[in-house]
Amino acid sequence: MSDHDFVSGGKPIGIERGEGPYLYTADETAYIDAGASFACTPLGHSHPAVVDAVCEQVENLIFIDSSYPVQSREDAYASFVASTPDGLDQAWFCNSGTEANEAALKFARSATGESKIVAATRSFHGRTMGALAATWKDKYKKPYEPLAGDVEFVPYGDSEELAAAVDDETAAVILEPIQGEGGINVPPAGYLETAREVTDDAGAALVFDEVQTGMGRTGSMWACQNAGVTPDILTTAKGLGNGLPVGAVAVRDWIADGAASHNATFSGGPVVTAAVHATISTLVEEEWPAHAAEMGEYLTAELEAALGDEVREVRGEGLLIGIELKRGANRAARDLAMNHQILALPAGRTVLRLLPPLVIDEADADQLVGALAEVVVSES
Ligand code: PMP
C-alpha cells in the first residue's frame, strides 16, 4: 500500500470490513488489528454469533423501554452477572464506560452517604463531569472546571498513600486494576488487596473500572480475578457487546440497596443486550480468556526476546500489553501502520499499546513481533 492511501497519523483510509483480528481495505489489503478497535471486539470483528444475535433482535424488536422485561435483556443480565466475581449479584446496563463510572460514583455516594472520592494518578475514567473529576490528566479537565469536586488523587500503586487517603468521609476508591490510558501500568502485588482492606475498614465502596481490562483480556474474565480481589462495584463497557455501544455496572447488594433513582432511556436496550449475551456466552463457552492468557504470555516473551535492550520495558497482563519505548510511540504506531499493516495504539507519549482481539494466533503474534522489531530498531 502506498503513502497516498494514508491520512495523516498513519491511519489507513477505507477500511471496509473486519473479520477475526483483521481489517481489510476495499482492495483487500489486510491489517492486523492490534488496537484499532480499542479492546471493543474481544471475539474479533463481526463475529458470527454476535452478528446473528443482533440481526435477529433487530428484526424482532429494536427498542422498548427498559421497564418492560425483554428476553435479550434478561439473558444478558444473567450472563453478565454470572461472569462477574461472586458477591456482585446485581447489575445495571448503560451506554458507555464513562456512563458506567458516573453511575458507580453516584451509587457509592448514595449507599455510603459520603462524598469524597479517592482516585489514582494517571487514571482515566471518562469525560463527563463526575468521571472526568476522577480522571488524572489536567489537559482533559482544566478547561471544564469546576468539575464534580471532592476527589483526592493518590499515586497509583502506592499502598501506604492509598491507606492514608481513605477515611470515614470516603464514599469510594476508584481504580483500574491495570491502568490503560495511563500507560499500561500494572500495580505491585498486594495493592488491590490493600484497597479492599482500607475501603472495608472505612465503610467506603471499592470501585474497579474494568472498561479496558475486562472481558477476558487479561486472562480472566475480569482482571480483578487475577488478584483475587472483589470490589463493591465493577464497571465495564468497550468489549462488552463486541463493538456495540453498551456498558454495565455490577454491584454488591449493599450498593444496590442504597442506590437512589438512576436511569437512562437506552440503558440495556434489546439490540445491545443481544450482543452482550452472545459475546459473554461465546467468550465463556469457547474459553477465550484462557487463550488470551496463553497468547499474552507467548507474545510478551517473544517481544522481550526480540526487542531486548532496544526498549525500556514490555509489561501488562494477557493481551493488554504496553511497550515502553525509548522514543515517541506515535511515530512507531504510524510506521507500523504504513509499513507493516499493523494498527496499534499509543498510551501516553512513549508507550505503544497492543490490544488485539483475543482470537489472535501464534502466526499473528509472530507477525507483530517481527514488525515491531523492525520498527524499534529502525527508530533507534
Ligand atoms: N475507563 C477506562 C479504563 C477507559 O479506558 C475508558 C476509555 N478509554 C473509559 C473509562 C471511558 O469509556 P467510554 O469511552 O466508553 O466512555
Mean pLDDT: 95
What is the CATH architecture descriptor of the largest domain? 3-Layer(aba) Sandwich
**C-alpha termini separation:** 25 Å
Q: Describe the global form.
A: globular
Structural class: alpha/beta
Radius of gyration from CA coordinates: 20 Å
CATH topology of the largest domain: Aspartate Aminotransferase, domain 2
How do the strands and helices of this protein lay out in sequence?
Layout: E1 6-7, E2 11-12, E3 15-19, E4 22-25, E5 30-33, H1 48-60, H2 71-83, E6 90-94, H3 97-112, E7 116-120, H4 129-133, H5 138-141, E8 151-154, H6 159-165, E9 170-175, H7 191-202, E10 205-209, H8 223-227, E11 233-236, E12 247-251, H9 253-258, H10 270-285, H11 288-307, E13 311-317, E14 320-325, H12 329-340, E15 342-343, E16 345-346, E17 351-354, H13 362-379
Parallel strand pairs: 5-15, 7-8, 7-9, 9-10, 10-11
Antiparallel strand pairs: 1-2, 3-4, 4-5, 6-12, 11-12, 13-14, 14-17, 16-17
Helix pairs in contact: 1-10, 2-10, 11-13, 12-13
